[in-house]
Structure formats: structure tokens, C-alpha cells
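Collaboration report, partner site 2.

Our partner group contributed sequences for two proteins of shared interest, and the home lab folded both. The records are reproduced in the order in which they were received, starting with the first partner submission.
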Amino acid sequence: MLTTSLLLLCAGPTRASRQGGFPAIDEALDDGGRRDAAALVLPVRFRYAVQSSPTPSAIETAQAMGVTPLPQPALRDIDHGRWAGHDFATIATEEPEALAQWLADPAQGGPDGESLHACQLRIGAWLDALTATGAPICALTHPMPIRAAIAHALAMPLRASLSIDIAPLSRTTLSFNGRWRLQSLEPG
């Protein structure tokens, strides 16, 4: 049986990730994010099979590193519902009770958004399909899908994955040989 290696690379910094908020689906990297992504060197073994979220921030991260990704809908960021594109301060002012509920249980997702469980189902199906590849794969995505992938791969409680910090440009490496294993978590 061949080993599948998966490098989950978090998309580079955007305005929302620097200011604290829920990114809009069409949010691009900020200037610093482009610079930081361009400085990142993708290991050679992962350069030949690069998949990404269809969002601009993930695609721009790959392009800044000199690779062309294959967009995969399963890798898209979690849908933040009506909070997408808004910062925490605005939401705290306009919807303090809803924000307090989300802070108490972020796995439920933002109002009219996607739950972390729904995100895990789509990421889990994508992850399960990779087990037969026996090849190195790089996937550029976002913090919540990476948390959901880790929870799925390690059969850990989904809620526990919220305790894992996933920073922009951080790297999570998983391998599959009969079962998934976490090889490393590296900061961005």
C-alpha cells in the first residue's frame, strides 16, 4: 500500500484575518499576504498536485508561490452567513447576543451560515477520496476546513478542533497508510 501525504496550507493573510472578522467569500490577499505567500517555498514533492479552495485568497496564495492550483469546491471556506465580510467589532455592536452565542459555540456557525459539522462532512468526503492516491498532495484552504480535516482524519471530537490555532500560511501535514496520521503542525 502506498502512502498518501497531504500538506494542508492555510491561505495567506487578508484584511479580515489581520483585523479580526469573518472573511467575505471574494476576499483577496492583502499586500502583506501576497508578499508573505511569495516568500513561502513549497516542498518540491508537493508542487505537482496542488488543489485549492476556489476563493481568491487561496488561489492567490498558490500563484504567489509560483504554482497553479486546481480549485476544489470541497476546500472552500466555511460559509459565515450574514456575517461574511464583517469585522468582530461591527458584529459586537449590531448583534451582541448573536455574537455571544457564537463565541459560546462557534461550531454552530454564524447566522444563516454553515456549521462546522457540515464543513466536516464535505471535507471528510474529499479527504476519504484521497486515501487511494498514494501520492503527495498540497491543498490550500482556510482555518475552519483545516480544523475539520484534522478532526475527521484523527476521529477526534469536532469541538476539540476549535482549540487548534490555524494561522495564515501555517502548514498541517497528514499521511495515510491504512489510517490517517498527523505528521506536523507548523506555524505560518
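Second partner submission, folded after the first:
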Amino acid sequence: GADTGAALAALERVAEPWARDAAAAIRRNSPLSMACTLALLRDLPPGAGIRHAIAREYRFVWRAAEIGMTDFQEGVRAQIIDKDRRPRWRHATPHDVSAAEVAALLAPLGRDELAL
């Protein structure tokens, strides 16, 4: 949510092609997915290994496969099924994504947690 909006604003202040490209990618992608991606990167503890990172990402992927939990199905529709390349994300901007939504998508899976 707000962190993604702040990252986007910071990128837009940089007059470099890489920053312009990164900002365009953030604006093009699902605000909910971008907020979760940033949270996954930001909340990775120092010294955490690849197993920890993969297990956390698995939580998002698990929930992304559930109908209605994320924008995954809408992205598939826009890119692969209808090929209109005009996804209708559930949030209009990064600021519309709540911290509670991100936390719910990244919460432990209980008995379904990935064990490596």
C-alpha cells in the first residue's frame, strides 16, 4: 500500500531510464501484488536464507491460486484468455491497498506451510 506508493514516488523523482522503467512496471502491475512483493522483500530478516524466503513467497502463491484472493486470475484473463492487456485490478492505486490485506496474504498457512 503506502510503502509501494512511496517507492513509486521516489522512483518518479529519479531522472534515469532505469527508474522510469521500474516506475512503469509498478504502475502496470497489480497494486496488491506489488505491495505483497515489497513486503516480502522488506520483511526478510537479516541473514535469512533462501529457504525462509521461498517459504514466505509460497504463502502468497498459495493464496494467489485461490479465486478472489488476489489479482492473479484477472492478470491471466487480460494477458492470456482475452489478450486485451487491460487488467481491471481490484485496487486502482498502490495507496488503495491496506496493510491488513497484505498481512492476510502473507500470513502463515498452518498445516499447509511449506516445509523444506
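Feedback sent to the partner group on the second submission included the following. The CA atoms of residues 28 and 87 lie 9 Å apart. The mean pLDDT is 92.
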